[in-house]
What we know:
Blueprint (H helix, E strand, L loop, with lengths): L5 E7 L5 E8 L4 E6 L1 E8 L4 E8 L5 H23 L2 H17 L5
Antiparallel strand pairs: 1-2, 2-3, 4-5
Helix pairs in contact: 1-2
Amino acid sequence: MRQTxxxxxxxxxxxxxxxxMMWNAEDGGIEKExxxxxxxxxxxxxxxxxxxxxxxxxxxxxxxxxxxxHQILLSLSHTYERxxxxxxxxxxxxxxxxxxxxxxxxxx
Length: 108
């Protein structure tokens, strides 16, 4: 059996707020790539709930955070369609993402 790792290194300030984050993905050829935000979700099948870690650096611009969240919403619609085959629900999710973009005044 083969194993691989994805890691995130986080530098915190004196108040435990992320100042800098670097991520590594051996199989993806990513090594010490800086990022300003990350969202990780894992499924707990015993409790039947999603567990999340949402982190962003204190210098992450708000306009970029809005774009990041918009792209996550779009990717969730694509993931949902691949996982379920339900094109109509995925389309609805995509429409919600576009409404989010309009309401949050994201500049594309």
